Amino acid sequence: MIVYPSAVYIAFRLLGDSGFESYAVGGAVRDSLLGKKPSDWDIATSALPDEICRVFSSYNKIIIGIKHGTVAVIIDGSQIEITSFRKDGIYSDARHPEAVSFSASLKDDVMRRDFTVNALAADIDGNIIDYVGGIDDLNAGVLRCVGVADDRLNEDALRILRAMRFASELGFEIESETKLSMKANASLLSMISSERISAELGKTICGKSASLVLNEFSDVVAVIIPELEKTFGFVQHNPHHSLTVWQHTLEVLSHCSPIPALRWAALLHDIGKPACFTRDIFGIGHFKGHADKGVYISHDILSRLRMSKADTELILYLIKYHYPIPAPSIKSVKKLLRKVGVDRFFLLTELMRADNMGKHIFDADNENKLAKQKEKVELCVSLLSRVDETAREILSSHDCFSLRDLDINGDDLIKLGYRGKDIGRALDFLLDAVISGEVSNNKEELISHLEKKR
């Protein structure tokens, strides 16, 4: 059943009273039928753009999209996008139609849409209009292009990533023709802006079925992030890892909360491993320096994807410090808190936890091996729980672990004769001493400790 907000009812009534057809369309209809509350509503109408403006003359409007028939109307504080029925012209840039022509037919409007589950319409009474079999696909959990898949994806290559995103978020299976077309046309993604790719891929990796979708469409992922391709099938030759680097990456991602920066860090955390791989005389694989290498590679990737400075910095911090696990001692935890900060600390330990939980797909056919694998994972998870507990104790007791917590500051050091970079060096020296337990966080004792060094 579809329950419309009052703003949508008002839009329906005003258009209907003026003699125009109008229907709710797109994701709001799909989500309503799935029992979800839509975040926004779109209406398709037989009214032309100037007629939409006249119908809603007493309302605030945003007409940026009027060239393509869309007028955003603000009703009771809600923005409703109202678009004239239309047919799209030729897409020459694999993203936008060169021109649109307006139509009097809802069917014309529906047939230009991307996927059948997004091509459903509903009238003011909630009656569903389905020209493309969208209801059957919705009930079956299938994502299928409207009409010919190659046509839809060549029109707008971003639909390739939108399909992956919907499959990830909704847990849907992508229909075979659509799947083949996505893979065949993946190179068209080079024509899409980095910002749009970043946004869609970010939503994809945060979906409930992200790992399944990324694995199934790893060839598409490689078009966007070719650096990841080296992790595909990369055997680690290490007793602590029974999975390839890519398989491990997907397992780690699936064990992380759907927080964008955390999921991005999970996706990229071991991207430096292939470049750092060595084997010892026993044939055991090692990856010394892979975290730092991963930071270097990931910085280029995130810059290319136009990720924000704040997000990039957070993701790179998580990659840099995801290994090794710190000891649960007060000293070790304080040092890590100092390095990464409070906001990043618990994201980091979650990534560490996921990293260890994703080392194996447990071998149920070998009971001894299964028991040992589980024991190692449980030991690491238990250790990280103690690390988290220690951090919470430090935070609750307001222990000193950062420069701002020190009972001495730069002004105090200037009075003692320190200048320039020597001030920062002295503060760092004192903080290290407090964290290691050499001296109490008391101004007089700190000054005395500093004088001994001089």
What does this structure look like?
- The protein is an alpha+beta fold and 454 residues long.
- It folds into 4 domains: 1-131, 2-Layer Sandwich (Beta Polymerase, domain 2), CATH 3.30.460; 141-224, Hydrophobic Seed Protein; 226-367, Orthogonal Bundle (Hypothetical protein af1432); 400-453.
- The protein has 22 helices and 13 strands.
- It has helices at residues 6-17, 27-33, 49-55, 106-111, 134-140, 149-155, 158-170, 176-184, 194-205, 210-216, 218-224, 245-254, 260-268, 273-276, 290-304, 309-320, 330-340, 342-357, 367-396, 410-415, 421-436, 443-453, and strands at residues 22-25, 41-45, 61-62, 70-75, 78-84, 86-88, 100-102, 121-122, 128-129, 142-143, 173-174, 278-279, 285-286.
- The strands form 4 sheets. A 7-stranded mixed β-sheet has the order 3-4-5-2-1-8-9.
- Strand 4 and strand 5 form a beta hairpin.
- It starts with 5 loop residues before the first helix and ends with a helix.
- The model has no long low-confidence stretch (mean pLDDT 94).
Give the N-terminus to C-terminus distance in angstroms. 77 Å
What would you say the CATH architecture of the largest domain is?
A: Orthogonal Bundle
Which CATH C-level class of the largest domain is it? Mainly Alpha
Beta-strand fraction estimate: 5-15%
User: In terms of per-residue confidence, which ranges show pLDDT below 50 for 5 or more consecutive residues?
Assistant: none
Radius of gyration using CA atoms only: 28 Å
Overall domain count: 4
Instruction: State the helical fraction.
Output: 40-55%
Can you count the beta strands?
13
Dominant shape? globular
Mean pLDDT: 94
Derived from helix and strand composition plus strand pairing, the structural class reads: alpha+beta
Q: What count of helical segments does DSSP give?
A: 22
